Amino acid sequence: MTSILDLALNQQQGPIPLAGISERQDISLSYLEQLFAQLRRQGLVQSVRGPGGGYHLGKEATDISVAEVIEAVNETTDATRCKGAGDCQNGETCLTHHLWMDLSDQIRDFLGDITLADLVRRREVRDIACQQSARTDVGADITLRQISDNDGQAHNRGADQSV
Fold first, then answer.
1. Which helix H or strand E contains 57, and what residues bound it?
2. 122-130: Cβ within 8 A, 24+ apart
3. What are the tens digits of pLDDT across the range 128-150?
């Protein structure tokens, strides 16, 4: 989630190299390459090859939910021990199976209702992004200026609401 959110926050700079995301988020480059291959297969990101290449979102940030990102990289929101199969206790359904299934559904619904755009609009997310860019100096001048500009625009539109 962190890496695609970083991409969404910085996409106005053009294609974002994974090396920049790796440095800002302290995530291994080889791991990011694996994640972004999965995200690309699901159409959530697109790659641009060559000098000045990198990644950009495959669709609008308003159309990408947190749940969609989690599913794209084969992670789960399942809170059951049996992965929903109902064979949690010696091949039978355990007493709390339906409790954990209900929780899984609520988590999935909650994350399905939050988009990348919602996260980008959160002041605390933008503040952290500014700190990360300043710390790593990876596009710090551009990112700080653009996030500040975006903050003013979002604030003027009243979009500075928390999720």
1. strand 54-57
2. 122/162, 122/163, 123/151, 123/160, 123/162, 125/5, 125/9, 126/9, 126/150, 126/151, 129/6, 129/9, 129/10
3. 999 988 887 644 444 444 444 55
- DSSP string computed for 24-56: HHT--HHHHHHHHHHHHHTTSEEEE-STT-EEE
Question: Does residue 50 contact residue 157 with C-beta atoms inside 8 Å?
Answer: no
CA distances from residue 42 to 7, 48, 130, 160, 163 in whole angstroms, order as listed:
16, 16, 29, 30, 25
pTM: 0.77
Measured in whole angstroms, the distance separating CA 152 from the mean position of its chain's CA atoms is 23
Which pair of structure tokens corresponds to residue 161?
Answer: 């609401």
